[in-house]
Amino acid sequence: MFWLCALLLAGAQAPAAFAHHPSGDGSGAGIPIPNLTHGQMAVIADNMPAILALADRQTGLDETARRLRAFVDWQYFFCFRGLVPGSLKDEESPFNECSHAYLAGTQALLLELRQTRGDRAEVRALVEKVGLDMARNNAALVLCRFSGEAFNTADVVSPRWSEVPGHPPSLATFGGLAFLIGGALWLGLRRRTAPVTGPLPAG
Question: Is the pLDDT at 142 greater than 60, yes or no?
Answer without folding.
Answer: yes
